[in-house]
Amino acid sequence: MSHALPTADDGWTYYSAPGTCALAVHIALHEAQAPFQLVTLDFGAQQQQSPDYLAINPKGRVPALKTPQGVLTETPALLLFVAQSFPQAGLAPLDDAFALARLQSFNSYLASTVHVAHAHKRRGARWADDAAAIEAMKAKVPQTMTACAQQLESTLAATAAQGPFVMGAQYSVADAYLYTLSSWLEGDGVDVQAFPLLLAHRERIGQRPATRRALEESGG
Ligand SMILES: N[C@@H](CCC(=O)N[C@@H](CS)C(=O)NCC(=O)O)C(=O)O
């Protein structure tokens, strides 16, 4: 792993879209004070499916981070890459294998379970063609996302004695990711008042300058 700090000359370009999971890495980039250019895609115009963007990320999704070494995709990978590229920002417990695995476990749960449960609301066509099946998946979202919120609340409760962040006392990239996905809960039909730790976490992370800057730049 190289510890040479990326500079503006290294030419990182970050591809995002408003109101998406791409907010998480955008926040992390600002927490790290990373130099990067932002490209905001217009999903309304299906820009994620344009030939130009598919040449960058053939998956047709955001986020994507273009670096001189190549393009990286998948939020947990990008979050760790940012944390490792800017170790002085302290965005992950890089020298503690167990703690780092806990952070990766948390981020993997967000990516593979929470995000996928959320996607059943608007992106059911990924999994079924039958209109009734798509409606049935949509109807299930409040239940599955409530179960996810319960799991996340329990995780925060387990570390609450050490501090208010996912990893306890220390802010990490997991907080940026949790903030991003927990902002979807109301829209997914979850009664957020039942999850006071999640609400307090969202409030706290939402006030950080890096979060506010990313929200302003990305348009939500
Ligand atoms: N597993 C990917 C998921 C990326 C993803 O699905 N992004 C959504 C936005 S939240 C997207 O680009 N959707 C565009 C589309 O479905 O056309 C990750 O965690 O980065």
Question: Helix and strand layout, with pairings?
Answer:
Elements: E1 13-16, H1 23-31, E2 37-40, H2 51-56, E3 64-67, E4 70-73, H3 75-85, H4 97-122, H5 131-159, H6 173-182, H7 196-206, H8 209-218
Parallel strand pairs: 1-2
Antiparallel strand pairs: 1-3, 3-4
The structure holds glutathione.
Glutathione binds near residues 61, 74 and 111.
Protein architecture, described:
With 220 residues, the protein is of the alpha+beta class. The protein has two domains: 8-90, Glutaredoxin (3-Layer(aba) Sandwich); 97-213, Glutathione S-transferase Yfyf (Class Pi), Chain A, domain 2 (Up-down Bundle), CATH 1.20.1050.10. It is 51% helix and 7% strand. It has eight helices and four strands, in the order E-H-E-H-E-E-H-H-H-H-H-H. It has helices spanning 23-31, 51-56, 75-85, 97-122, 131-159, 173-182, 196-206, 209-218; strands at residues 13-16, 37-40, 64-67, 70-73. Strands 2-1-3-4 form a four-stranded mixed β-sheet, covered by helices on one side. A hairpin with a 2-residue loop joins strand 3 and strand 4 (70-73). Helix 4 (97-122) packs antiparallel against helix 5 (131-159), helix 4 packs parallel to helix 6 and helix 6 (173-182) crosses helix 7 (196-206). Glutathione binds at residues 20-21, 48, 60-63, 74-75, 111, 115, 123.
